[in-house]
Amino acid sequence: MPTIDAPARKQIALVAHDHRKAALLAWAGRHRAQLARHTLFATGTTGRLLAENLALAVHCLESGPLGGDQQIGARIAEGTVDCLIFFWDPLEAQPHDPDIRALLRLAAVWNIPVACNEATADFLMSSPMMDSSYLRDIPDFSSYRQRPA
Ligand SMILES: O=C(CO)COP(=O)(O)O
User: Fold this and answer.
1) Given 3, 68, 114, 138, which residue has the most CB atoms within 10 angstroms?
2) Helices (H) and strands (E) in the chain — how many of each?
3) How does pLDDT run across 44-93, given as a tens digit for each residue?
4) Substitution site in 14, 17, 19 for ligand 1 pocket (most atoms within 8 Å of beta carbon)
5) Residue 1 — pLDDT band, cuts 50, 70, 90?
6) What are phi and psi of 113, to 5 degrees?
7) Residue with CA closest to ligand 1 atom 1
């Protein structure tokens, strides 16, 4: 099975919907020192809040509803995301729901570790695999790519 070598310094994508941003900020504050050892990127507003409140270096993409979720999805397909922390809001419909579903779908396709709440995010951060090299299996899509049209 093909693998991607996720190095000790991970590329972590962070995303939170508006009603979940406070929870993500509180969570990120608890893990700030560890997060700072990785490469962080985020949808626009989430990234700005992380940078302003926690002084973390974050590559800010476009705001989610304006295409930020799709930008992260594209990076997943390109193999440049090692982990996704996505505090999505289970209690409010989002105008860009198709983009959100697409992002979560691509994370499943490419076997990306995903946390959608604090408890799972805690588990991810406490994993020894987060701070060391990790060989992530990716499915062998060669026969799918070569299927007859
Ligand atoms: O809507 C989002 C993810 O679906 C988050 O976008 P912002 O970080 O720009 O608020």
Assistant:
1) 68
2) 7, 7
3) 999 999 999 999 999 999 999 999 999 999 999 999 999 999 999 999 99
4) 17
5) confident
6) -65, 130
7) 64
> What is the span of the domain harbouring residue 50?
3-128
Please state the domain count of the chain. 1
Please check whether residue 60 is in contact with residue 39, taking contact to mean a CB–CB distance below 8 angstroms.
no
ipTM: 0.98
Q: What is the 3-state secondary structure (H, E, C) of 81-106?
A: CCEEEEECCCCCCCCCHHHHHHHHHH
Structure tokens at 131: 């701070």
CATH value at residue 76:
3.40.50.1380
